[in-house]
# Entry
Amino acid sequence: MSVTEAWGPGSVSERRRSSISLDWDAEFSRARQAYERSEGTITPVGFWHCHPEPTDSERPSDADLGAFGALMERANEIAHVPIFVAVIAVPAGGSRFAAPRIAKWVIRRSDSCRRNLVCERARA
Ligand SMILES: [Zn+2]
# Structure
């Protein structure tokens, strides 16, 4: 897998101190356009966001887990996405985001129950 493009939240997304409301329709419209423009070569593979404080966890919150599942479902409306990647950036030290900690997670269907999703730390 190779990531060729990543972008920030859409223009009508709302960022608050500890949460963000995404314009998912705009995000997936852009992803669909990339998929169609590339004739299926570029597929949506994941999502990234920040946890703003150096003391914040790099682990997904309960809200993150719910969003990851929903985002994976939306990505699968565009192309077959068996594994969805979630990246969480957390500022390190006093430099804020100059050298963030980057946590990578993968979301996939459970082997034992296909309705359930599993989120685990990626080995990269
Ligand atoms: Zn989060």
About this structure: The radius of gyration is 15 Å.
